[in-house]
Design goal:
heterodimer, A: alpha/beta, 6-stranded mixed β-sheet, 11 helices, about 35% helix, globular, B: mainly alpha, about 70% helix
């Protein structure tokens, strides 16, 4: 199972959203990381067929997806960035409707299981108009998962969720990704740090870096420092270095700083994370 | 003050940069200009001698009433004295040709309808924008987000409305001008009374002044209504509900203002807001309102009332904004309602889910129910009107039903003689002449009184049938009242509006709920769903149309009957265009055409909904396109003029009446069939565009 994107480009008038994007996806979780406007959602929409690409080819197992038609659509599960839900339907009805649209033969068991996984089992018969933002988010994830899609595209799936739900959803995605290509677009680095097989850094529609999160994190090794200083020195450090974190501790302040050289004598080297690498790449 | 000016500038920029506002304004301005052009009657019949007689009659009546009330010094005496004095000063010259255009401009009333719609639309946008974009909480946190915000909104709304009034008046003027209404513009200096529609005007002003004053009168009314529409749209959490409340108030009042029972009541006639917008109300005959015994001219009330309402609605908006008032309509929970058992959902087909989208919406169910109730009420009211002469006429028709005119000649002549004898007896008894040759004159006179009007109607029909017989178009005698009423029932505006609401609701449902991007990534969501949606909305609107037609049809059938379906359409005067076709076939064809009309309406709605993302805008655009021509061409003498009505196929009978004019049929097919089909292309593209990637 392989989804290949070859030299795909997309522009909105003068703005280039994607520029010669080329990558192959095999089963596993892929994380698309990048600042706003880096082209993550555009790529998602091109893969789903909701947006027309300007150039390039997308193939699935060697077949051009534009020639696959409905066969390709039956492989897709998609959760958009701003998911809409029919407010007059109950959670269960909504999922049955999506199952009908996906042509799922016997959806009852599958829907029961998915609702349990996203912790909406208790409210399955309630109208979605009574749902909180987090519940709607989980329902939107549930609809994407129905029909056991081979390609699962999730655009910021954990937005608006509390830490407990975030971990639950993260683990659920990880669990179902064994025989699927899961592509997650997000800003929250910690969400994908431990579940993504590959993290893709996207900047202005171009891949700047790509690899396993732990490997990417290592690229920042030696560049991350912790400094303890007085509160009046913070501004001076901010002007000279990229400060990742500022933690006030009474009169003194702990700073986490990115620097290619040792910033001060009292600076201590720190173990880098994927977030450090993200900041390092996108800081400038 | 500087901040106020800056905020006002931004508020106006928001309006100017909104594409929808610009499109709606341009469309309505153009429609207004076309309507002014179309309805302008530049031929001046100027029957001035009748006006002179009319003025003389008014003076005579006022003087005699004043004479009767003289010495009492009450309101009535003062009122008639004022009328006699005012009208005595008037000259009643013949209408000069140069003022015809001004007269046409001042008499053109549909500008109000277009203008009010545009003002309400812009006001709703101005007031509601921040609420819809979720910026209200941020606004409240800022210095000018409270009182300053309300003041800026009201000022921006007033400025926009004033500009719109000027633009709409200009567009009406242009419509009349293009039609050739103005020989030259020198007529502006003539007296207002020189215009035939304003011969009774009590004020000595020039025509040009009247035109300017009529524009100035429109401004406060439109601002008051815009403040009202804006305030309502601000108050309600649901934009659709706010639009519905505003529309019911505005168009309901507008329609009510035109009803005869309002016109009979002096207070309602002059003290309603819409009275001030129409020049005929401001400059027409002198009307006064009794205010503590003082006769206050209506034109004074017409300017004071809107100004008071502007202050009132403005103050209400201030209060609404400062108190963060908002309304969510919740249906009251009935106490006897049993607790609903939670049922587990079951999987259904896609078609069923499309129905659920409609029938799970309280608004849609309410619209369907209200349409059917309104249909039933209108139908019952219309069949109740069965005047006595028509009942007698029906009796005559049923007496000779199914027979041909030449077969009943003797019986007809005998009846004619009986009526003539009755007339003789009646006139002899009335003028005290002796009655000769009639056995029972009282009975004969009673017979004449009871049957004359009905027989006269039958005589007209009989003579017509003789004419047809001479042209070898024999038609049996039948009572055609039932057929006529059914053919005239036409395309009801309620029904069209409801069908448009339902169609656009379903067609835009996925997009409005932001689920379209998910639908299009599913197997059936791209290829099959649009067709299922189309089939569902065709079924719903078709069923609604069938139910409504049945509600209209059955009372007519039971009350008037629809006999002899094999008879020719020549039997129904005014509907002979399909001569050679039986009435039964005519009715069947009417049903078929109506069904095709429903399909085309669905095509149109789907097409519009593919182009316009918002439900309310898609609905408003379709409703305007379908309903406005009905208003404008309702009283057109030339039936062929109706060929430009997009709803003509929904009427069925209206379309068949064009059959005598092939050109009109071609135009009608272009408008009713070709345009919806072209508009449907974007919808089809949505289904098949996968192949274009």
């Amino acid at each position: 199972m392989e989804l290949s994107i070859n030299n795909v480009s997309k522009s909105y008038k003068q703005n280039k959203a994607l520029s010669g994007f080329t990558l192959s996806f095999s089963p596993g979780v892929y994380a698309l990381l990048g600042p706003n406007g880096s082209g993550k959602s555009t790529l998602m929409n091109i893969i789903t067929g909701n947006l027309k690409k300007d150039s390039g080819v997308i193939t699935y197992n060697g077949k051009d997806i534009s020639k696959m038609g409905m066969e390709y659509l039956s492989l897709l599960g998609y959760m958009p960035q701003y998911p809409g839900i029919y407010l007059q339907f109950t959670a269960e009805e909504y999922l049955y409707y999506i199952a009908a649209l996906k042509g799922v033969k016997d959806p009852v068991e599958q829907i029961t299981e998915v609702l349990r996984e996203v912790e909406l089992d208790d409210v399955r018969s309630m109208k979605t108009s009574t749902f909180s933002g987090g519940m709607k988010q989980r329902l939107a994830l549930a609809q994407a998962v129905i029909g056991d899609p081979k390609i699962l595209l999730l655009d910021e799936p954990t937005a608006g969720l509390d830490p407990k739900q975030r971990i639950a959803i993260r683990n659920y995605i990880s669990r179902i990704s064994f025989n699927k290509i899961v592509i997650i677009a997000t800003h929250v680095v910690s969400d994908i740090e431990y579940i993504a097989k590959t993290a893709i850094f996207l900047k202005k529609g171009v891949i700047t870096d790509c690899g396993a999160p732990s490997e990417l994190a290592k690229k920042a090794a030696g560049d991350v420092w912790s400094i303890r200083c007085g509160a009046d020195e913070v501004t001076a450090y901010q002007n000279r270095y990229k400060v990742i974190n500022i933690q006030s501790d009474g009169a003194d302040v702990n700073l986490r700083v990115l620097s290619y050289t040792k910033p001060t004598d009292n600076a201590k080297p720190e173990a880098p994370t994927l977030e450090d690498e993200y900041i390092r790449v996108f800081a400038n | 003050m500087q901040d106020f000016g800056r905020n006002l500038k931004f508020e106006l920029l928001k309006l100017l940069r909104n594409r929808m506002i610009i499109i709606v304004s341009v469309v309505l301005l153009t429609a207004n200009m076309v309507a002014a052009y179309r309805l302008c009657d530049v031929e001046n019949d100027a029957k001035t001698e009748y006006y002179a007689q009319g003025v003389a009659a008014v003076i005579k009546d006022a003087e005699s009433r004043y004479g009767a009330e003289e010495g009492k010094n009450g309101f009535t005496a003062r009122y008639y004295k004022m009328i006699a004095d005012k009208y005595s000063k008037l000259r009643t010259d013949k209408e000069p040709e140069a003022v015809t255009g001004y007269g046409q401009y001042l008499s053109y009333i549909y500008v109000d309808l277009f203008l009010l719609s545009c003002c309400a639309f812009c006001a709703a946008f101005t007031f509601r924008r921040e609420k819809e974009t979720g910026e209200m909480q941020t606004l409240y946190a800022y210095k000018h987000g409270r009182r300053g915000y309300a003041a800026v909104k009201l000022t921006a709304c007033a400025i926009t409305t004033t500009v719109l009034v000027l633009l709409f008046c200009l567009s009406s003027f242009t419509g009349v001008f293009v039609r050739g209404g103005f020989v030259d513009f020198t007529g502006g200096g003539a007296r207002l009374q020189d215009l035939k529609a304003f011969i009774y005007a009590p004020n000595e002003i020039s025509v040009l002044s009247a035109v300017l004053v009529s524009v100035l009168y429109k401004i406060p009314v439109c601002i008051a209504l815009a403040f009202f529409a804006g305030g309502v749209s601000y108050l309600f959490n649901s934009g659709a509900l706010a639009a519905a409340v505003s529309a019911v108030f505005m168009y309901g009042s507008y329609m009510l203002n035109n009803r005869s029972y309002i016109n009979k009541n002096a207070f309602l006639r002059n003290c309603n807001l819409f009275a001030s917008i129409r020049p005929s109300n401001i400059f027409g005959e002198l009307r006064c309102i009794n205010v503590f015994g003082f006769a206050i001219p209506a034109y004074v009330v017409n300017i004071v009332l809107p100004l008071l309402l502007i202050v009132f609605f403005g103050a209400v908006f201030f209060e609404l904004h400062l108190n963060r008032a908002s309304v969510t309509i919740k249906l009251p929970k009935l106490k006897f309602k049993r607790k609903r058992k939670i049922k587990q959902a079951k999987p259904h087909g896609l078609f069923a889910y499309e129905f659920r989208k409609i029938f799970k919406s309280k608004l849609c169910v309410a619209v369907i129910a209200l349409t059917l109730i309104a249909g039933a009420i209108v139908s019952v009211i219309s069949v109740r009107a069965f005047p006595y002469p028509e009942q007698v006429y029906k009796k005559y028709c049923e007496r000779w039903q199914g027979r041909y005119c030449y077969e009943i000649e003797d019986e007809y002549n005998a009846e004619q003689k009986k009526i003539n004898d009755g007339f003789e007896a009646y006139s002899a008894m009335r003028y005290g002449r002796p009655v000769e040759g009639i056995d029972n004159p009282v009975q004969a006179a009673d017979y004449y009184i009871a049957n004359y009007e009905g027989f006269r109607l039958f005589r007209e029909k009989y003579e017509r049938l003789i004419e047809l017989h001479e042209q070898d178009k024999d038609t049996p005698i039948l009572f055609e009242g039932g057929y006529r009423r059914f053919f005239e029932s036409g395309a009801d505006i309620f029904l069209i509006l409801s069908a448009v609401f339902l169609c656009t609701y379903l067609a835009t449902y996925d997009r409005v709920n932001n689920t379209e991007s998910v639908m299009t990534t599913t197997k059936k969501g791209r290829g099959k769903l649009p067709w299922i949606k189309f089939a569902a909305l065709m079924t719903v609107s078709g069923a609604l149309y069938a139910a409504f037609t049945l509600i209209t049809f059955l009372p007519i059938l039971f009350k008037f009957g629809m006999a002899l379906p094999y008879a020719d359409t020549y039997a129904v005067p005014g509907f002979e265009a399909c001569g050679g076709m039986s009435l039964g076939r005519y009715v069947a064809l009417m049903f078929i055409l109506r069904f095709i009309g429903v399909v085309l309406l669905c095509l149109f709605c789907c097409g519009i909904s593919s182009l316009i993302k918002n439900h309310i805008t898609a609905m408003a655009a379709t409703a305007w396109i379908y309903v406005i021509p009905i208003f404008l061409l309702k009283n057109a003498e030339n039936k062929a003029a109706r060929c430009v009505e997009p709803s003509l196929l929904l009427d069925g009978s209206g379309f068949m009446q064009l059959f005598s004019s092939p050109g009109a049929v071609a135009v009608s097919i272009l408008i009713c069939v070709v345009i919806p089909c072209i508009l449907f292309i974007p919808f089809i593209r949505k289904v098949i565009k996968w192949n274009f990637r």
